[in-house]
Amino acid sequence: MVAVSVLFGLLNGTISQVSAAALEGAGAAVTLCMGIGGVICLWTGVMEVMRRAGLSERLAGLLRPLLSRLFPGSAGNADAMEALSANVSANLLGLGNAATPMGLRAAAAMKTGPIANNDLCTLVVLNTASIQLIPATVAGLRAAAGSAAPFAILPAVWITSMASVTAGLLAAKLLGRVWAA
């Protein structure tokens, strides 16, 4: 896109406008990154405080019955269930970047062979469509972009994330049964 923009800027004689727009965009990107970086640090810190206070373990305990039903092949695997609980907790807080390492750890603990099993497929679906109670990353982006009410999107996020997780999990379970037969 940059090459095409420069080419058309040269052809149209507007290369100075293309250069100005590129510099303005670079400045806006730095401002956005700094704003979202602060939000990510905040919520990552909140997750660490939760972990040290034992709240993560309690949340994991609350999630364990549900996760055992969603991931029956991994229910007896303590490492997988711990990583799954941490992953789901981070996703609930809208911290996809903090959820990723735990999701990878869970996937490694669940792996049983060269082909993805139903639990791994369900994990991918759950992470892709994650339910977010507090969409911290999106709210941080909105705040960095100047939104007066960055959390005004909460009802829409709750409805769409519930719908996407429900549809994804139903599809994963249905297709898991179809291919198992």
Summary, kept brief:
With 181 residues, the protein is mainly alpha-helical. The protein has helices at residues 2-12, 15-52, 55-70, 78-92, 96-110, 118-128, 136-144, 154-180.
Q: What do you see in this structure?
A:
The protein has one domain (44-180). Helix content is 78%, strand content 0%. The protein is built from 8 helices and no strands. The chain has helices spanning 2-12, 15-52, 55-70, 78-92, 96-110, 118-128, 136-144, 154-180. Helix 5 (96-110) runs antiparallel to helix 6 (118-128) and helix 6 (118-128) runs antiparallel to helix 8. The relative contact order is 0.10.
Unreliable parts: none
Biggest sheet character: none
Order of helices and strands: HHHHHHHH
Please indicate the count of domains: 1
What portion of the residues fall into strands of 2 or more residues?
under 5%
Distance between the termini: 47 Å
Q: What sort of overall outline do the alpha carbons produce when their principal axes are compared?
A: globular
Number of H- or I-type helical stretches? 8
- Judged by helices, strands and strand pairing, the structural class is mainly alpha
Mean pLDDT: 85
Helix content: over 70%
Calculate Rg over CA atoms. 21 Å
Number of beta-strand segments? 0
Sequence-ordered SSE layout with sheet pairings:
Layout: H1 2-12, H2 15-52, H3 55-70, H4 78-92, H5 96-110, H6 118-128, H7 136-144, H8 154-180
Helix pairs in contact: 1-2, 2-7, 3-4, 4-5, 5-6, 6-8
Which terms summarize this structure?
single chain, 181 residues, mainly alpha, globular
